[in-house]
Amino acid sequence: MLGSIIAPSNGAVVSTKKPLDALIEAAENGDAESQFRLGVKYDSSFDNIEQNDTEAFEWYFKAAQAGLAKAQNNLGTMYYKKENYTEAAKWYQKAADQGEAISQRNIGFMFEKGRGVDRVDIATAKSYYEKAAAKNFSGAQFRLGMLYEYGKGVAKDLDKAVEYYLAAANKGDVLVKF
User: 160 versus 2: which is more confidently predicted?
Assistant: First the structure.
């Protein structure tokens, strides 16, 4: 529950707490979605919360341990930014295994670059990119376009590259805007 509630005489449910206070309470009480949302606020400085990597990490970690895929992805990204690629890959993999498209793109990138994984594995990278692209995730479509443009692990195919680039661009991916 996102805070204490009261039922006035008209039967309406009214929160007695400010939304941020209710979110903090729910997060402290173990609600994974609230932990994730609080992590986002600390990560990005939302709602007058000062940006704090330590707090963001703590809340993402709690939600990630509870199995929340989007928290696992964000935790992976925090590890990635600190160049701890092994931990980043571990958390991206957990989220990708749950079908999180951004994590499928991210673990694919780790395999493409050989970061935090045993070795460069373009076939595995491509497989993850294809899973995310099938969910219309533009970042994966862009990476597939690059594989086909440069013939990296696949036969060079400029038509296919353009197809993937256009799909990504049509979703607003600024990396492929001409």
Answer: 160
